[in-house]
Amino acid sequence: MEALNEALKTLLVAQQAACEQAAQLAYQHAVQAIRLDAHEYIVRMLEQAVLARQRMFGASSEQLSAQSRLFDEAEALAQSSTEAQDLAPIAAEVLPAVKLARGKRAPLPAQLERVDVVHDVPESDRTCPCGTPMVEIGQDISEQLDIVPMQVRVLRHIRKRYGCPGSLHAPITADLPAQPLPKSNASADFLAMLIAVKFVDGLPLARFEHVLERHGAAVPRQTLARWVIGCSHLLQPLHNLMRDILLDGSLLYMDETVVQVLKEKGRSPTSNSYMWVQTGGPPDKPVVLYDYDPSRSAKVPVRLLEGFKGYLMTDGYAGYNEVERSQGIERLACWAHVRRRFVDAMRIQSKGKRGKADEAVALIGKLYAIERALKDASIEARYLVRQSRSVPVLAQLQAWLQKTQPLVTPKSALGTALAYMGDLWSRLTVYTQRGDLPIDNNRCENAIRPFVVGRKAWLFSDTPAGAHSSAVIYSLVQTAKANGLEPYAWLRRVMRDLPAAKTVEEVEALLPWNLRIPDLSGHIAG
Fold first, then answer.
1. N- to C-terminal Cα separation, the chain
2. 282-320 burial, b for 16+ CB within 10 Å, e for fewer?
3. Residue 156: what pLDDT?
4. d(Cα 473, Cα 235) in Å, to the nearest integer?
5. Structure confidence by residue, pLDDT tens digits, 129-158
6. Is residue 21 exposed (0-12), middle (13-18) or buried (19+ Cβ within 10 Å)?
7. What pLDDT is recorded for position 189?
8. Helix H segments across 123-220?
9. 8 Å CB contact between 275 and 255
10. CA 42 to CA 55: how far, in whole Å?
11. Chain mean position to CA 184
């Protein structure tokens, strides 16, 4: 019995020691895991600090300053105005033009108008020292860039009235041509300039108000704002027709950017809303379309792309996945977005040291070098070269990814870049299946840039209606530019002819691809 007790005691001590050892090991593992998590967190924070410093102070920084945070005054001012402000006060006299400016001495574009200013030798100096009158043997020509300052004038519409000599019948009066904004006293050409300076040149209405004042026309910014909103309503049919053309294409690019709207029902003024940008259309009818929506959810691309069948190029945002599932659209992913993540990982490396991120950037660079060489190639030739050269590079890049990813901390800058590329791999390789598919989404990013640059002058929109108006006008001016038209010249034609258009065919005739530069030259000179 005594031996049995000793055996039990020994077994209990051994079991207790084993439990203590297991607890000690568990504690050590927990401490090690906490230390590892803390280390990863510290590394991640340091990486983010380095990247933030680079974005803020780097050479390519595009950060907005606090001083640029102004309202999108077009709709903010229009909201607080009345119909009485549709009429601008017109002064009785216009101030004299300011002195003409001179440009630099340089070769000047051939399409600019030439005005000859002849400088002749005085007749008294045209006698040769030998006593013979000199004859003209040639001329020396030099050119200066000249500018005629903006001319503000008043158009007087004089409508003739005719009546019966015997006063037996009612008189008749000549009709006034259809006007863009009938309740205002702004001409079609003025409205075209107003849209161009704000949405093409990014000039806030407050500054344009001062420009007009310098030229003798005091037009309050509230009035300018109402005219901008009115123009967006007039131009809406063109926006609708452009959408039809956009969805008829087989390839579409899509992206979105943040815009804040202060007065949106049920939402905080600090909430982010979004401007969605789509570009595509047939090769001879490029379209750039902006659409405002308070949401970034999957329902937005589903709504905007209803009826579209083909290839969709986007970044890695998961909100586009529903379109792929529900509408039979094949997705492509953007290599430029992948490359940027590896470039960010390179930026946090020690200076002068080459790391794994450099290897990824070098391989992606090979893909882009192939595309640059194929810039002017036919679709068939591009497909064949992609199969023979790009596909092997992609295979090499995939093998590198599979080898490298297990060795890298998942939440580090390099780890997230590897995960991003791995998650999108099947979409990143789709472009090699054909010769007419793009390698990246740069076309859409270039289309969205004018909005982002313009937003530096107005960080907020006041109302959803104002954000929608901005979307309509940005769509039109950027589509005109994509079709090789000067936006002001095209807008001038549209603002003159659209009010009189009665049929869909008459509106379609004003779409950018239905007009060419010779069609607009008469309107510029008129």
1. 122
2. eeebbbbbbbbbbebebebbbebbeebeebbbbbbeebb
3. 92
4. 8
5. 998 999 999 999 888 888 887 889 999 999
6. exposed
7. 94
8. 188-195, 205-214
9. no
10. 20
11. 31
**pLDDT, greater one: 502 or 264:** 502
Report d(CA 192, CA 179) in Å as an integer.
13
Q: Is the Cβ–Cβ distance between 274 and 293 less than 8 Å?
A: yes
Phi/psi at 250 (5° precision): -105, -5
Which of 393, 396, 392, 370 lies closest to 382, judged by CA? Answer: 370
Q: How far is CA 208 from CA 68, 195, 324, 370, 505, in A?
A: 16, 11, 45, 46, 35
Q: In terms of Cα–Cα distance, which of 329, 227, 313 is closest to 278? A: 313
DSSP letter string over 48-85?
HHHHHHHHHHSTT--PPPGGG--B-HHHHHHHT--GGG
Q: For position 338, what pLDDT does the model report?
A: 95
Residues 6+ away with beta carbon under 8 Å from 51 = 344, 347, 348, 413
Q: Which residues of 489-498 are buried (b: 16+ CB within 10 A; e: fewer)?
A: bbbbbbbbbb
Residue 20 pLDDT class (50, 70, 90 cuts): confident
Q: What is the pLDDT of residues 47-105, one digit of tens each?
A: 666 656 665 655 554 333 333 333 455 666 666 677 777 666 654 443 344 443 444 44
Task: Calculate mean pLDDT across residues 217-234.
Answer: 92
Bridge partner residues of 133 (DSSP):
127
Query: Which residues 6+ apart lie within 8 Å of 273 measured at CB?
Result: 258, 259, 260, 261, 264, 267, 292, 293, 294, 295, 461, 464, 467
> Tokens representing 267?
């939402």
Q: Radius of gyration (Cα) for the chain, nearest Å?
A: 33
146: left (phi over 0), alpha (psi -120 to 50) or beta: beta
How far apart CA 188 and CA 497 sit, in angstroms, is: 9
CA distances to 192, 237, 245, 524 from 486, rounded to whole Å, are 12, 21, 21, 10
* Calpha distance 69→461 (Å, rounded): 11
